[in-house]
Write a structure and sequence with these properties.
Blueprint (H helix, E strand, L loop, with lengths): L5 H5 L7 H15 L8 H17 L2 H10 L9 H5 L4 H8 L10 H8 L5 H4 L5 E7 L1 H6 L1 E12 L13 E3 L8 E8 L2 E8 L8 E3 L11 E12 L8 E4 L14 E7 L6 E3 L2 E9 H6 L1 E6 L6 E5 L8 E4 L15 E8 L6 H16 L4
Parallel strand pairs: 1-9, 11-15
Antiparallel strand pairs: 2-7, 3-6, 4-5, 8-9, 10-11, 12-13, 14-15
């Protein structure tokens, strides 16, 4: 029976992006997962088909082969190769569904995915840390950033074996068993020692012709662009976890990517928790007479600040809800404005005389 088109199975267009593919898979999983259809064998078969389509289309290398050659492009892939690198357990937990086939033994995995998993596919590759520098404005408003991450990935051409097609042969050192057995006799006793073959490292096979794409390593180095959402209110040290975007090779489940934020020092504002502080210069006249200053900087544009008559340098004014948004709840911190009275310079003779007259008037009234 001919296989159905993977895009048709997921009900998506061939130009669908990763987010659309995942959303379509989630909707179908919520409909056909055994949690939603207990005892329904047809739902299990449908889920197998959906899993296979997702496993191919969410992997850029497998998808490229499929887009170019159709199902024939994946003929060299075993069932284990198709599902390799897809952390269905994490996906199901994310969807609020049971971890069928991940915590209850290989027999359930067989029925749910149509294959047996090896111990290798249960292990994860290394995690990656990426330090992302962001501005205070970015963490105040939130939004997406695009980053470039260098990492290793399982070679799509050889599936991580490191060998070209038909480029593997039985190890001559261990005869393909992956083990070396040595025996020592002592009288009537026989001591047998079994060790992993050092030539094939226990696989039982060695590379006779290396893969052209990875030169026999089984993995390739790549640089990928990823979108990261910076949440409103985040601060230096805040960590964003992106599952499955870490390192992987030799068939391991991909590790995770941890994006650690570093908020740059701002030229105007100083952050303390969710409150921000700034210094605003005002003139001698504004401080003495009071009035409205209409160019006080904030993260959302200029604000007005009413200065009382007789304001002194160092006076701090609080503007409510003009700070950083709270990360774990509604509302924002506050903006604190410390005023600095600026002494005028380069006065004209007329201005100096006016100030002298002002000083004389103050002294007559007994003021300093």
């Amino acid at each position: 029976m001919a296989k159905r088109d993977y895009y048709e199975i997921l009900g998506i267009d061939k130009n669908a992006d990763e987010a659309t593919i995942k959303r379509a898979y989630r909707n179908l999983a919520m409909k056909y997962h055994p949690d939603k259809n207990p005892g329904d064998a047809q739902a299990v078969e449908k889920m197998k088909e959906i899993n296979e389509a997702y496993a191919v289309l969410c992997d850029r290398h497998k998808r490229q082969l499929y887009d170019t050659y159709g199902h024939a492009g994946l003929e060299g892939y075993t069932t284990a190769d198709i599902f390799r690198g897809i952390d269905f357990a994490s996906l199901f937990r994310e969807f609020g569904l049971g971890d069928f086939g991940f915590d209850f033994g290989d027999s359930i995995f067989d029925s749910f995915f149509g294959t047996r998993r090896s111990a290798k596919t249960r292990r994860k590759g290394a995690d990656i840390r990426y330090d992302l520098e962001v501005t205070l404005e970015e963490v105040a408003s939130g939004g997406e950033r695009t980053i470039e991450v260098a990492r290793t990935r399982t070679c799509a051409s050889c599936g991580g074996s490191g060998a070209a097609k038909r480029g593997l042969k039985d190890c001559g050192h261990c005869g393909g068993s992956g083990q070396i057995v040595t025996e020592k006799r002592s009288g009537f006793a026989v001591f047998r020692q079994i060790s992993t073959c050092s030539q094939c490292r226990g696989s039982g096979r060695i590379i006779s012709q290396p893969c052209d794409d990875c030169q026999g390593k089984g993995f390739v180095e790549e640089t990928v662009e990823l979108s990261v959402y910076v949440p409103r209110g985040a601060d230096t040290g805040y960590t964003i976890k992106i599952e499955g975007e870490g390192e992987t090779d030799d068939g391991l489940i991909p590790g995770d990517l941890y994006v650690v934020l570093n908020v740059k020092k701002h030229p105007v504002f100083e952050r303390h928790g969710d409150d921000i502080y700034m210094t605003k210069e005002i003139s001698f006249v504004q401080a003495a007479l009071g009035g409205v200053v209409d160019d006080v900087s904030s993260l959302d544009g200029n604000l007005e600040l009413e200065i009382p008559e007789g304001t002194q340098t160092g006076t701090v004014f609080k503007i409510v809800n003009e700070g950083i948004p709270h990360l774990d709840g509604p509302g924002r911190g506050d903006l604190y404005v410390m005023v600095k009275v600026v002494t005028p310079q380069n006065l004209t003779e007329e201005e100096k005389e006016l100030l002298r007259e002002f000083d004389r008037l103050r002294r007559r009234k007994g003021h300093k």
